Please model this.
Amino acid sequence: MRLERVELFVVRLPLKRAYETSGSRETHQTHVLARAESEGAVGWGESVAPEQPWYSGETPKTVWYALDEVILPRLLGLDLTGPDDTGAKLGWIREHRMAKATIEMAVWDLFAKRAGTSLSKLLGGTRDRIPCGVAIGIHPTVEALVETIERELAGGYQRVKLKIKPGMDGHVAEAVRNRYPELQFMLDANSAYTLADLPLFKRIDAYHPMMIEQPLAYDDIVDHAALQSAIATPVCLDESIHTGDDARKAIDIGATRIVNIKPGRVGGHTSAKRVHDVCAERDVPVWCGGMLEFGIGRAHNVHLASLPNFSLPGDVSASERYFETELIGEPFTVERDGTMTVPVGPGIGVTVLEDVIRKLALQTKELRPG
Model:
């Protein structure tokens, strides 16, 4: 297969509610979308780079640059014998994983559509429904947080993830556990702490969260291993894991007991599958994280989360939770039992609303083989 034409779009949508983490407060999401064509089939991908480089070094502008000036000029016109070829062809490019993922995931969509099968089946998925959790940003008060938790639990979510930062951490865990003795909740620190905060993490142990995600530096595994050896709460790594080798090293030194896999962060589905497989071989469960994706990125996450070792509820929440405007014709919903249906149609299995995208796009570009 050869990519005959790729269109890029920049779309910016307002969030229904501001989303705050230890590193940012976001009111909008700006994503680069890729529409790839080959022999009459069309595949779609979506970048996950935040507007500011707080989570990684990538932003929508760097994604656009990398796709427009480096990645697509090399990829267009090349023979791709399978979706894994994309990562191999782009392996010489260091970093820029979110940019690579934008087109890599579109190519996976293309191959699945050309084969007349769902992306889930092409990836090796084994389930037709996935368990859903929800990520809740930092709130100004515990009372406001509890109100949000009540609303999300009423919506059927099986697990809640609570963002924390210094000053909004231990007492939050205490209040939530006292209010909900049986609730599956986890804490996400987004690298806001150091080993000097060990007393805080030991205090948090008493409230039995199911995990604490990326508490220490975004590129660290050594200090996380020291932390994990000192606390009972499982440490989950996110930002530190980009490849299967990263996962292997982190698990082998005891830095993590759970791994969060975001395909848009690790370079696409091929890399995500490698991380999944490494973790499965070592009996380390994984879950699919979210990056406030629009419908296209959300669809890719749902299909990936159908793989067998995604045994924990992920951040694959309903489409309507974050945005008023929808870019797909079949928005994702959460059932009362806290699960979401994996689409069965070809590729990502949803109708991309191209007219809406073209109307909203702040920037567009068409690229063809040179």
In short: The CA atoms of residues 165 and 175 lie 15 Å apart. The mean pLDDT is 95. The radius of gyration is 20 Å.
